C-alpha cells in the first residue's frame, strides 16, 4: 500500500463495483417487476376465487330450495299413493256397477290423475334454472 499498490487494487475494486451496480440495479428492477406481476396475478386469482365461492353459495341456496321442494313433492306423492291404493282396493272389492259406484270410480281416477300431475311437475325452470312456480302450486294444491 505504501508504494501505491493499494490504490490500484482499490481502484479496480471500485471499478468492478461501478460495473456491477447497474447490473444489480437492473436485476432489482426485474425482480420488482416480476414480483409485481405475480402479485397482480395473485390478486386476480383471489378475485376469481371469491367470485367462485359466491357462485357456490348461490348454487347451495338453490340446491337447498330444490331439496325442500322435492321433499314436499315426495310427501304429497306418498300420501296420494296411499289414498289411491285404498281407493283402488275399494273398487276391486266391489261388484262394480257404474251407476251405483261411479263416485268411487271418479275418486280413484282423480287420485291417479293427481299422482300423474305430481310426477310430471318440473322442479326447475329449464330456461332460468330457478325453482318453478308450478311446483309451489302443486305442493299447495295437494297439501
Would you mind describing this structure in some detail?
The chain is mainly alpha-helical and 143 residues long. The protein has one domain (5-142). Helices cover 85% and strands 0% of the residues. The protein is built from three helices and no strands. Helix 1 runs antiparallel to helix 2 (98-119) and helix 1 (5-93) runs parallel beside helix 3. The longest helix has 89 residues, at 5-93. 5% of the residues are buried. The mean pLDDT is 88.
Gap from first CA to last CA: 106 Å
Write down the overall mean pLDDT.
88
| Distinct helical segment count | 3
In sequence order, what are the helices and strands, one letter per element? Answer: HHH
Give the helix proportion (percent range): over 70%
Low-pLDDT residue spans: none
| Main sheet summary | none
Question: How much β-strand is present in the residues?
Answer: under 5%
Based on CA atoms alone, the radius of gyration comes out at 40 Å
Label this structure with key terms.
mainly alpha; about 140 residues
Write the layout of secondary structure elements.
Elements: H1 5-93, H2 98-119, H3 133-142
Short summary of the structure?
The protein has 143 residues and is mainly alpha-helical. The protein has one domain.
